[in-house]
Amino acid sequence: MKQEPVGLFEKYFIIWFRIVTERIWTGDKKFRNTTIAILLFGILNVFLLTGSVKDFFRLGEAAVYDIPSTLYGLNDKGEYEPIAEYYKFSRIPVKLEQLKPEETNYSTDNRHKVIQCFLSTEDNSFYSHNGIDLKGIARAFVVNLMAGRVKEGASTITQQVARLKFLSIERSIARKAREAWLAILLELEYPKDKILEVYLNEIPLGHGTIGVGAASRFYFRKEVQDVSWGEAAILASLTTRPTQFSPIVNPVSSMNKVRVVFRKLVENGRMTVADAEKEYAALEEYYTNLNRSPNDSAFSDRLNRFPYVTEYIRKNLIRSIGSSRLYNGGLKIYSTIQIRHQEEAEKALLPALQRQTIESNQRAFRNIDAFDDLYGSGYSLIADLYDLPEFKFKISKIERTFSSAYQEDIRDEFYALNLLTGDDFLGDTLDKNYSTQNTKDHLLPVEGSLIAIRPETGYITALVGGSGFRSDNQQIRPFQAFRQPGSAFKPILYAAAMDHSGKNPDPEKNVTPATLFADSPLQYLMEDGDEWAPENYSSEYSGFILLRKALEQSKNSVAVRVLEQVGLSNLMESLRGLLQLQGRDIPYNFSVSLGSFELTPYELTRAYAALASGGKTVNPISVLYVEDNSGKVIKDFRKDYEGVERKQIISKEAAFLITSMMKDVVEEGTGRGVLSYGLNRKAYGKTGTTNNFRDAWFVGYTPELVTSVWFGYDVGTISLGRGMTGGKLSAPVWGRFMARALEKEPAKEFPWLADVKITKRTVCRMSGKLPSGQCHDLLEEYFIPQTVPKDVCNDHGSAWNVVESKPQSPVSPKPVETKKQDTKAEKKPTESKPPKRKKSVFSGDEEIDY
C-alpha cells in the first residue's frame, strides 16, 4: 500500500494558522476579516486535502513501470540466454502501438479488441472528458442509490491511473478528492493514449499479474495482441475483483461477468448482439478445457530454469544492489552459468539422489510417543528437581495417528472415489496435500551438492544445491552444508607437505610421491586419557607403501604419518592459504589429516581449483555485470574480481606432483568410477568417505573444470548405508557430469605446465630409492629437484639386510627436466650412510592439542 509523505508545507500550517488568526483579531474590521479568513481557509483546506505543490513534480513517475529483472546464462554458442526472472508481481509492459487495429470492424471503432473491452467496461467516454466524468458520477450516484449499495463506480480510467500510481486503496472522501485532483494534472501532462497505455500496464488482474501483458500470458499462454474477443472480455472482467471473477478460481462467476462485458460492448455500439453471442459461445471450449489449480500464480509461472542458481544469485544481488531494484528495476544480470553445464549437472545428480534415497532407506522417526511411554514418569520427577518445563506434544496422539493413517491408506481411496464424483473442492484439497508431502512413505531424502568452477577464471558454471528446490528444501548446500571431507582432504595435505619439502629440503623428512611410509595401525593417548586409533577404511594394512600408492588406495594411516613427519605447524600456513576459510580456522590436531573438520563443498572445490591453477588461489564469481533497463552497467563484479590478488600458495611443482598422483586415483584407485561414462580426457581427483558412511565425496578436475560432488543426509549423524563410499556414489555422478558438460569443449593442457621445474627419476618401486643392480621392479617418478632421493636401494638380496654393505655405483638414469639444471652433483658416486636416529615424530608440534 502506497503511503504519501507529509510535506513541509503541512508541517508548518498550524504555526502559520496561529499567526494569521492573531492578525485578524487585532484590526478594527473584525467581522469582515473573519469572513474573508473563513473563505480563504476553506479554499486552502480543500487544496490541502486534494493537492500539493509536490504533485507537479511527481507526474513524470506515472509513465515509469516496475519491470522484472532477467538473469542470463551462456549457451553453447557463447550467447547469453534468459534462464530466470526476478519479480514479486509479473508485469510485461505493452506499448499501445503493439495493439494493432482490428481488420474486421464490428463498429466504427476499429481499435484493438482489448482496448474496446476495457473502454466499454471502465470508461466509455474516456476520450471525451478531462479526467473527471461528471455525468458518470451522477449516473453512478442514482444507480447506487436505487440499488441501496455500491453497484457502479464513477472513477474514470485517468482517476484509476492516479490511484494506482500515487495513492492507496483507502476508501475516503479525502482520497477520492486527491484522486480527482491528480487525474486533472495527468490529463494536462499526458495525451489520452499515454494515459490508457499506463492503465493497461498497471491494472492488477489477479494471480500476481499486473497489466494485460502478464495477464494474457498467464491466463491464455499467449501474447496480448493475439487474444480473441472472448479472452479480451475475460481480461476486462477482472478489474474490480480479480479473485472473485478469476476463470481459474470461479469459472461460473467469471462467465457471468464476461457476459456483462459483452452486454456493455453491445450497449456502447461496439458489437452487435449476434456477434457478441457468437464470441461468447466460442469461450465454452476455454472453460471446458480449463484444468489448473486455483493456487496457480504468476510467481510460480515465472521463468526459472535452474532454481538453485536463481536463489543463490538472488541472495548475493540483494546484498549488493537491494531487493527493490532487483525485483522492479528491469535489470539484465549476466552470470557465469553455462546452460549446458547446469543442465548436465541436474541430469547427473538429481536422479542419483532419488535412487540413493530408496537405496539408503532411512525413515523419519515416527514413534514419537516412545519417550512419553518409556520415560514420561521419570521426566516428571526430573522436571520437579530441576524446574524444567512440562513435556508435551503440539498435537495429540489421536491426531498424529489419524494423520499417518490418512496419508498412507485413506487418502488414495478418497482420490479414487473423487474421480467418480468429480468434486472440485475435494480434488483440489487432495492435490494440494499430495504436492506438499515432503517425502514418499516417510523416507528421509538423501541430499547432495554439485558445484563446478573454471580454475583459470573462477567462473562458477554449474550449481545444484540438493534433491530438488521446494518450499521445504531451499538450502543451497554447496555453500551452506558444513561436512567433513574425509579422504578428499588428503590431496590438499600432501600438496602442502611436498611444497614444504621443496622449499625446506631435508633428506630425513622430505615428502615426495616416492617417499616410503609404514601402513600399519596407529594408536595415540590423548591428554584427557582417551585413545585415538585411526584406521584404514578396510581395516587392512599393506606394510611399507609409497605415498603415491597410499593416495591411490586412500590409506588413512599414511596420511597421519605424513603429518607427523612434516609437522602440522609447518603446513598450517599453506593449508590456510589453500582453504581460505572465513571466520574459522583449521583445528590444531592430527585428526586434520583425515579430514575430520568441517568444510563446505564450495570451500573444498575452491581449494582443488587452486591445485588445478598451479598453486594459485582462485576467487570464484557467479555474476559478471548488471545492466539497467537502458543498457547502462550499474554494477560490474569483474572489477571487484580483478582487484583481488591471486596468491601463489604452493609451488607449481607441488601442484604438478599432486595432480599426477590424483591421475592414478582415477585410473587405478578408488576413483575409477569416474570412467564409467566415457570421459574422453585426463582427469584428476580424489574420493572421500567419512565415518559410518555419513558423507560420500568426489572432488576432481581437468584443465578446463573443477567439480565436487557430495552425498549425505542433512542430519550429519545418519549413515548412507554400509559400503556407500565416495567411489561408489559420487565418482560416477562426477564422471557423467564431466563427460557430458565438456563434450563439446576441446581438451587442453594446464597453462602453467611450461613453468614447472620437475625432475624425473627411475626409482625402486619397493623402497622409493634410486635403484641398485638388484632392483628389478622399477618406477618412473617425478620430484621437485631439491627432493630427489640420493640413497640407493639396498633392500634386496639377503632377507632384511641388517648389515649394510657398500653399494655399487648405480646406473645413472637420464633426468627428464622441463628446464636445464645443474647436474654436477649427480656425477659424484652416491654413498649410502647408516640411517640416523629420527627425532621425535612430534618434534615441532609441541603446541598441538592431541
UniProtKB/TrEMBL annotation:
Q: Which residues cross the membrane?
A: 31-49
- Penicillin-binding protein transpeptidase domain: residues covered: 448-738
* Residue span(s) of domain Glycosyl transferase family: 112-265
Query: InterPro entries of this UniProt entry?
Result: Beta-lactam/transpept-like, Glyco_trans_51, Glycosyltr_51/Transpeptidase, Lysozyme-like_dom_sf, PBP_transglycosylase, PCN-bd_Tpept
Q: Quote any Pfam family the record assigns.
A: Transpeptidase
Subcellular location field: Membrane
Annotated Basic and acidic residues bias: 816-834
Q: Where is the composition biased (Low complexity)?
A: 803-815
Which one of the record's GO molecular function terms can you name?
Answer: carboxypeptidase activity
| Family to which this protein belongs | In the C-terminal section; belongs to the transpeptidase family. In the N-terminal section; belongs to the glycosyltransferase 51 family.
Name used for this protein in its record:
peptidoglycan glycosyltransferase
Q: Which organism is it from?
A: Leptospira jelokensis
Q: What taxonomic lineage is listed for the species of origin?
A: Bacteria, Pseudomonadati, Spirochaetota, Spirochaetia, Leptospirales
